[in-house]
Write a structure and sequence with these properties.
This protein is mainly alpha-helical and 153 residues long. It has nine helices and two strands; from the N terminus they run H-H-H-H-H-E-E-H-H-H-H. Helix 3 crosses helix 4 (52-64), helix 6 (97-110) runs parallel beside helix 8 (129-142) and helix 7 (116-125) runs antiparallel to helix 8. The radius of gyration is 17 Å and the shape is globular.
Amino acid sequence: MKKHILVLVVGLLSWMYAFAAHNITEEYINSLGAESIDQLIVAASLEDPDDVPVKIKAIMRLGELKAKEAVPTLIQALGYGSETIIRVGGTRKIYTYQVRLVAAKALAQIGDERAVKALATRAYQDEDLIVKRAAVQALGLMGDKAKDKYVLT
């Protein structure tokens, strides 16, 4: 009985946390500091096309805060959207390249070596020239940290 109640409580809390993250505004993200990195990581992980502006803002803020704990999430965002445009309801377009672009810039600001291979992959393989350029610039800004056999081949 106690086990079932615990599972119910944990499920309810995780649902509430996800719902709260889904309703974050761009203005609110600007006000967050280093104490809110976990919340920013949740916002940067949102997958709903309607949340792309919030996702972008959260990624930018994580870069500004140099949040090393966000590097895995930012590497994942670097590959966001296999298509350049997602059509929503036939009228609105979401340009997913913007997520990859700001993810590359945020990873450069953080300067963590874990991002080198992902940035090099984007530099070689992304379908958008602007993202390729951002990935190359990010590697350049990382300096000696980007001197990796994968980058040089």
